[in-house]
Amino acid sequence: MNDQQLVAHRARIRAALDSITPAEDAAIAKAVLEDPDTVLITELTKRRPGRPVADTPKIPVSIRLSPDVLDHYRSSGRGWQGRIDEALRKLMQLETQDERPNAVTRRKKRA
Q1: DSSP 107
Q2: Exposed/middle/buried for 84, CB within 10 Å: 0-12, 13-18, 19+?
Q3: Degrees to nearest 5, angle at CA 43 with 37 and 49
Q4: Of 10, 16, 17, 74, which sits 20 to 30 A from 29 (CA to CA)?
């Protein structure tokens, strides 16, 4: 649609809207409000676009990594930062398990 066609189109829409009587407008508004599929604009504007907010949002940090480590994770495609997070989480869990005393170390040794 070129500029002249757009101007003409907008003029036809304005003329059509101006020709609606107040009674017709009230009837249209009533029909719209009674329609179960109608969503009011205020309801649409309550939700922000994009990804939902996480319960525990991640914190952006700056970290220095070895080039080979970075190349390895980046070469696996999108989501490489999440995979680094997952690897660090697994390591954290392993370290936490190593710190727990097992049954042998908890027993008192006899002299």
Answers
A1: S
A2: middle
A3: 105
A4: 10
Question: What mean pLDDT do residues 12-25 have?
Answer: 92
With 0-12 / 13-18 / 19 or more C-beta atoms within 10 angstroms meaning exposed / middle / buried, residue 54 is exposed
Q: Which two tokens stand for residue 76?
A: 């696996």
Round to whole Å and give the CA distance between 13 and 4: 14
DSSP-assigned letters across all residues of 40-78: -HHHHTTSPSSSPPPSS----------HHHHHHHHHT-T
pTM value surpassing 0.90:
no
The secondary structure of residue 110, as a DSSP letter, is P
In contact, 56 and 62? CB cutoff 8 Å: no
